[in-house]
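Whiteboard transcription, Tuesday session. T.W. wrote the structure tokens on the left side:
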């Protein structure tokens, strides 16, 4: 949704006011181990998305399921089951 420059500036002012008035609460704190776990989960999700996009691109380029599976270290059948919704080559 496009926004005007004024909408963006108003939103920035609103966020600044919230941050200026922020008072930490003990429930806001997260243990380092939990934070690192959360970061790892986000990283894994991003990586998985990159792999899925790469598989789709490889399939569009005509790369076989066998070759894709070999690159990912799994069988052609496993890669096809996992990413089978990827478009077939034209």
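and on the right, the sequence the group agreed on:
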């Amino acid at each position: 949704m496009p926004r005007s420059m004024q909408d963006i500036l108003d939103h920035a002012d609103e966020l600044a006011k919230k941050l200026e008035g922020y008072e930490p609460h003990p429930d806001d704190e997260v243990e380092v181990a939990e934070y690192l776990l959360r970061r790892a989960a986000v990283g894994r999700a991003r990586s998985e998305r990159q792999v899925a996009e790469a598989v789709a691109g490889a399939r569009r380029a005509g790369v076989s399921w066998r070759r894709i599976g070999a690159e990912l270290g799994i069988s052609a059948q496993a890669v096809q089951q996992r990413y089978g919704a990827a478009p077939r080559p034209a």
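Someone added at the bottom: The chain has a mean pLDDT of 89.
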